[in-house]
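Hi C.,

You asked whether I'd gotten around to modeling the 376-residue construct. I have! Everything is below, sequence then structure, no commentary in between.
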Amino acid sequence: MCRRRGESMNLAWKEIQKSKGRYGVIVLVLMATMYLVFFTMSLSLGLRHQAGSKLMSAPMETYILSQGSNGNIARSTMSSDYGEKILSALGDPEAFILGVRLSSVENLTRETEADVVDITYFSIPPGETAMNPTLVEGRFPEGPNEVLASEHIVNDGIQLGDDLQDDRVNTRFKVVGLTKKETHSYNPIIYTLPEKYIDTSFWGQVTGYAEVQAVVTELSPEEINDEVRALNVDIHHKDTIIQNLPGLLAQTASFILLIIAMYIISATIIGMFFYIINMDKREEFGLLKAFGASDKMLTKMVIRQVLMVAVISVVLSVTLILLTSVLLPSIVPFYFVPEYILGGSIAFVLIALLGSLASLRTIRNVDPAEIMGGTH
């Protein structure tokens, strides 16, 4: 058995060496296709990460939004007093009120490439909370006019110590610390104290009360008590909040369809390639059968050729995608996840094998007597 396996492996390798040009072309085509699959996959993950990396990395399980927000945190609006009422009913000392608002700021300290920079305000209470940002440079705010900004904002020309102004509501603040690269709705995050968050909306400036978006807790949705549910609120798991971020669902679906299409193209290419090659080798298969080679051995030979071609293509494409992840500038939303690349590689090899099944019929249909008769 081992001997037969070795024979089919040797035949497969010798055939590839014999027709290096043919197999080289198919390897290059499949490598390019798989590179596009991996690139699209990493780009999709990168964009998804930019859409809501802050919410994704936070351990908070449940978001309590205003009624009718349909799981969209941007649509949720409640007064800070109502948020306090929810907190009191919830009874979780680790829960807190979260404010999230999209806006744009102008750099008063230095000129930037764009006149204004799109940002997302996050209002998180001082002290230890599960969503506290990780400081990488500078210090934490000590007053209401000081803020933290995620490192992504450096790509927009804003640096530590810069003075910023939100012209929409005519409020100013200074960046005193930079946090690790986290984003929301594709924008860098500016973390404010609750008292400064009041000034980021006209409503807050007029009334002195903040419009906040959610109460967040590490409790699961099932653990939320009836007292909270009676307050006319929407209760959602974190995954629902992330899924409902504007544009994320449509973007993810588009990338998934594109990746599926490229896998289908790969299967079609490898199926057609081996079908044509096997048709060209009908006489060779007939002679091998006449000299005692079985259909099973010849089938194994072709399957091993497909495996070799697929594995070589995957190794080359993974090498290229690793180089790409190193060379691409940080501004490109490219997120390399080894688990996804490994899963994609295994899927490609399996799809390549499935795509080659049609070509295996040509081996079984070869009649050695007919071939031998045609050679005389």
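If it helps when you're writing up: The mean pLDDT is 85.

Thanks,
B.
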